[in-house]
Amino acid sequence: MTTTTPSRGRRRAPSRIERAAGRAAALQRPRVLLALLLLLALTCVMLLDGYLRAEVGGDQRVRTGASASDVPGDILDGGPILTFRGGQATTVSMPDRTIALTFDDGPDATWTPKVLEILEKYDVPGTFFLVGSMVARYPDVVQDMVEQGNEVGVHTFTHVDLSYQSESRVTREIEQTQLALAGAAGITTTLFRAPYSSQTDAIDNYSWPVYEKLGQDGYTSVFIDTDSDDWKRPGVSKIVEWATPEDGEGASVLFHDAGGERSQTIEALPKYIEKMKAEGYTFTTISGVMAAQQPAGGPDAGRSGTADALQAAHHKATGTTLYEGKALVAAVAVAEWTVPALSAGLVVVGVAVMGRFGLMLVLARRHHRQRNRRRFTWGPPVTGPVSVIVPAYNEKECMANTLRSLARSTHPIEIIVVDDGSTDGTAEIAESLGLPNVRVLRQANAGKPAALNNGVRNARYDIVVMMDGDTVFEPDTVRQLVQPFADPDVGAVAGNAKVGNRRTLIGAWQHIEYVMGFNLDRRMYDLLRCMPTIPGAIGAFRREAVLQVGGMSDDTLAEDTDITIALHRAGRRVVYQEHARAWTEAPGSLKQLWSQRYRWSYGTMQALWKHRGSLTDRGPSGRFGRVGMPLVVLFQVVTPLFAPLIDVFTAYSMIFIDFRAALLAWLAVLGVQLLCAAYAFRLDREKYRYLLMMPLQQLAYRQMMYLVLIHSCVTALTGGRLRWQKLKRTGEVGTPAGTG
Q1: Which one is catalytic: 104, 257, 420, 468?
Q2: Which pLDDT tens digit goes with each residue over 254-310?
Q3: Potential cystine with 301: which of 42, 257, 295, 348 (Cβ 3.0-4.6 Å)?
């Protein structure tokens, strides 16, 4: 055993690096917060969109047949306009041969503009009772409506029967609609019509308190005399007939400009206006009736006298109401753009995920059958000794297990432990074991790439195996790992890393990820000849190939991905050896897991960006750029970034659309994933019981990975560098036999 000790003058380097790491960690905290804020913003946008669709709580109740014993008789028998001026409830009837055209349930992007076009053509005003959620969706339509001289009223925000709602819910329905009107047209209104209301004789004991409360707040409630029943789509002639008042009486007439297919309404409306004008009727607004300013001069007088009346119903929005309204409309605009965009993204992600699963299953099966044929061989057996490099920084808990596992190797090896400035006696532990063929090289703390390069420079043999200081090899691992080097085209070999501490929930989740994700992926990439990463836990390289590409680089946090891509670009083949197994200690806490996966994902992005030039590489060395780079970007960056949309949209659909259908769709996706995982476990001869953890993994683990990836993207966009991060180890991973 030999030992190399650096000069004492370099002992102060770790403290400087530790201070730099502390500053880097402080810079990461705002990025974590930003990642969480992005997730919160997405959730808020989807909740807003769901609320706008009036599906909150699924309250579609409509009260009928209730008693009206508490309602004054003169109200039940009165006119269609209910006002509480002076604190006394009174009704106002429509003057003879006077029509107030009222429209419910709008605005609608398709039908309302057509109604407005007809009203403008015939110089007839309308009173539109608007649903606040629709106002927020189509503010431009409302603005055109008001600028054209029409009147607007409140029809609640989500079109619920207010007789079933609490007082606070009623207040919220009205106030939110007023905010939407303020944001859309800069006004508020004093007119109100309750959903599912008709004539005043429909007021009952449950709805009367609502009208009283609104009357005390200054609202005028508007009912109807005549209902066109156009929502039933009975035919144009029937709509005109049912909307016509009897014997020259005046009427508040109900049409609908939204809430369904309204082509019959659009066809019937001009016929109705022409008929009423021909019979000497005048058209006005509800405020026109209230102000007793009837149009003079017969049916062609049009809007004369209504402009001043509009001022009584409409009030200019000012102060916080105006700004809150504009904020609401802006938020809805964001939601209206975001949700469809995310829906389209979900389709793309779904196709990509299903395509990936299908591709993995097909290629993994082919890979397994090809590599496990009896006659399969890489060439003459590789029997020569190899160098095993173990970079170590404060690995006292694991070092003994790691070196003892290597000492049992069935293949001749030399072991090079590169102590990267450890402060816990790691080097002393390695030396004290007294194992043969072990050299300990000490260096000042410089990071994992520097430690590996130091080991490569001091390696005596042409093949070098690299592993982590917390990893345990099986006796036959090195022999299996180096056999592909019988093929002279092979420049590096990726081994099969497995989770040793899988008895905990977090360990079981990572075990599923390693078996299903990493190893199925590597089988696929191997056949496609574009392996993106040789795992740091277990990989083998031709020494001269490593030196050819300049050794391990510290340009990225994923030095393993970096050098793998570099080898591809140098024309070297990289393969996967499933029978070379290494047992590694996965992070034991969510904090440690976050730190590790953040380094992996951010480092992968750095490596891909560093080697973006591979996209234009030509010849055999350009295969990674043509095939591997697009696949890695799609499957390791884009798809994982949007994969949680499956869960988000499932929750969204369960709450706002169809619970049963959404649940069945989610279970179907889970079933496909379980199928892939089960096949991966079969190939690796793993116990299926761990798959029981998979549903919970999809609910919790995937969301964490999403946040990690968001964090990495934010760091990549804002800039930032991290050093080699040391995870806390327990040393619990011993011999492979103890991990099953």
Answers
A1: 104
A2: 999 998 999 999 999 999 999 999 999 999 999 989 886 444 444 444 444 444 445
A3: 295
